[in-house]
Amino acid sequence: MIGLLRGRILVRRPPALLLEVNGVGYEVEAPMSTFFALPANDEPVTLYTHLMVREDAHILYGFAREADRTLFRRLLKVNGVGGKMALAILSAMTAETFARHVEQADTAALTRIPGVGKKTAERLVVEMRDRLDGLEPSSDAVAVPAAPTGGQADAEAVDALVALGYKPAEASRMVRAVFAPGMGTEALIKAALKEATR
């Protein structure tokens, strides 16, 4: 089992990363919370990882915080929740915010996450209520590194939201609603997700 990787980010295409570790490139799927925590320059980064082995693929998931990986693993134990939905949940809110919604049985907040319907939200509340212990609090205000802006920032943000489960038209609308000149891809994604989960 691969539990941790330390290296340099070669490619960032949310929700995918290419992480070089001692000359080997690892393709890693990561929630947007991890993208927001990555250094903007070529500094080494450490990711806590989870390897999912399926019949048709081996998928490596990476997280900036151990609490996020812990929540991801617990989410996978919920009936009907797979890796893609667990990533969408961790992209939409922090582990602390998710725990608060579950404790308060706030299914309305959970249904704003792409792919989470009313029944899934109710199942999350019931099945996760006893699995929240040990999650370290994390801040909703994660610093977003300045990203180079370009004409492709909005298109890349839309592509990332589609990869997280939003429909293309909805993703475009979300990005247009928060777009401001000079915003980089990661800033657009963060603003769109924050607005969507209000």
What's the topology here?
Blueprint: E1 4-13, E2 16-21, E3 24-29, H1 32-37, E4 45-53, E5 58-63, H2 66-76, H3 83-92, H4 95-103, H5 107-110, H6 118-128, H7 153-163, H8 168-178, H9 185-196
Antiparallel strand pairs: 1-2, 1-4, 2-3, 4-5
Briefly, what is this?
With 198 residues, this protein is of the alpha+beta class. It has helices at 32-37, 66-76, 83-92, 95-103, 107-110, 118-128, 153-163, 168-178, 185-196; strands at residues 4-13, 16-21, 24-29, 45-53, 58-63.
Can you describe this structure?
- The protein is α+β, with helices and mostly antiparallel strands.
- It has three domains: 4-63, OB fold (Dihydrolipoamide Acetyltransferase, E2P); 66-131, DNA polymerase, domain 1, CATH 1.10.150.20; 153-196, Ubiquitin-associated (UBA) domain (Helicase, Ruva Protein, domain 3, Orthogonal Bundle).
- It contains nine helices and five strands, in the order βββαββαααααααα.
- The protein has helices at 32-37, 66-76, 83-92, 95-103, 107-110, 118-128, 153-163, 168-178, 185-196, and strands at residues 4-13, 16-21, 24-29, 45-53, 58-63.
- A five-stranded antiparallel β-sheet has the order 3-2-1-4-5.
- The chain is globular and about 45 Å long.
